[in-house]
Amino acid sequence: xxxxxxxxRVRGLxxxxxxxxxxxxxxxxxxxxxxxxxxxxxxxxxxxxADLATMKAWVGRHYNPxxxxxxxxxxxxxxxxxxxxxxxxYVHNEGVKTASIIVVKLAAVLLAASSLFAIMRLTFGS
Amino acid sequence: xxxxxxxxxxHLTIYRPQxxxxxxxxxxxTGVALTFGAVLLxxxxxxxxxxxxxxxxxxxxxxxxxxxxxxxxxxxSLWFHFANxxxxxxxxxxxxxxxxxxxxxxxxxxxxxxxxxxxTFMAAYGAAGGG
Lengths: 126, 131
Hints:
The complex is a heterodimer.
Chain A: H1 6-11, H2 21-46, H3 52-60, H4 64-90, H5 94-124
Helix pairs in contact in A: 2-4, 3-5, 4-5
Chain B: H1 19-49, H2 52-63, H3 65-92, H4 99-126
Helix pairs in contact in B: 1-2, 1-3, 2-3, 3-4
């Protein structure tokens, strides 16, 4: 027996009005991270103990700043979506839950923006 | 709020740990650990913009024994979450959901994440002679 209205079913937004957006973004960023992580770990193992000049040269080389930027965006987007679910599952006080999610999301934006700005400074110098 | 006095279904603690349930909670735990790893990545990147001294202290911190211990945890979390995440994507496609396959891929994830962690650490520190 179908309890939902035809319109509700067609819209597919569910009880949260978000539909599958959270689920889909988690998968999309996860898939994006597969090649990005392989690339980054490969590069990072070569940068252990590198001095600042070597590190800067690597960050700014060819497509490295683009890939690093995409890595940062994918990591923080994926991470804040995951932390949101963990908070929703374990924090039962409505106020604390909402406040925690807001802090996580804003911190993710702050850290991602700081990282992107750092990548640009290291690439263009200053 | 008063707790209603009603019977509850058996919860987590009553079950024997199994490879499926243990890996499930490990996926979540490593995910949380990796958000800390992301902060370390941001710290490493931003420290470089503050000049030679700030970058040197970041390198010293990450290269200290406690820094390497933390990085070992982050790298293991990364490869575990990576391998088990691909397992999750296969489930999303409706593949590998029967119990024998679940157990086989589960142990496979454990083996792969340990091997990749060792390979990563040997690549990072082995060639440089522990430097």
